[in-house]
Q: What sequence folds into this?
């Protein structure tokens, strides 16, 4: 009985494919062309990535690290360094874009950062250049990661310099 049902189902599937091919003979090349023209999906690689890992996005160390790193994020991304944020069981984000298929607990386990706060940089060769369990200043991150990116100026220093220049000119 089951074998008869399987044979009939197989015949119906092949019959449907044959009928579809007779109505639209160019369907198979159209499907192939559309698949080739589809945008290629960039696969995840931990190389050249700065990981910020914490228990939650509101964890004090995570908030402080985001605040310290915020002025340099654009320069990091321009130099092909990804910033990956992994907070608790929430969906990981790479450069602000969610990666829904990546399991955060497996990623934390692979990086050896299962509990607490960590900042980890993996270089282009796939080796961990540094890891810290405390927030770091952007200049220290860039120095330890051996990146040729200048640290962004601090917000208050440009105002002081402008005031000093005006006073010296007077």
A:
């Amino acid at each position: 009985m089951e074998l008869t049902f399987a044979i009939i189902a197989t015949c119906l599937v092949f019959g449907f494919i044959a009928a579809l091919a007779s109505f639209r003979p160019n369907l198979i090349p159209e499907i192939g062309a559309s698949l080739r023209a589809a945008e290629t999906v960039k696969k995840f690689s931990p190389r050249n990535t700065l990981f910020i890992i914490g228990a939650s996005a509101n964890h004090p160390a995570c908030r402080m690290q985001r605040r310290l790193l915020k002025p340099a994020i654009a320069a990091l991304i321009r130099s092909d360094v990804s910033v990956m944020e992994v907070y608790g069981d929430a969906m990981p984000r790479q450069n602000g874009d969610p990666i829904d298929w990546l399991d955060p607990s497996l990623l934390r386990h692979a990086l050896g950062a299962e509990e607490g706060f960590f900042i980890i940089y993996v270089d282009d060769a796939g080796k961990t250049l540094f890891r810290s369990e405390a927030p770091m200043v952007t200049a220290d991150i860039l120095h330890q990661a051996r990146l040729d990116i200048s640290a962004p100026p601090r917000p208050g220093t440009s105002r002081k310099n402008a005031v000093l220049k005006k006073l010296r000119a007077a």
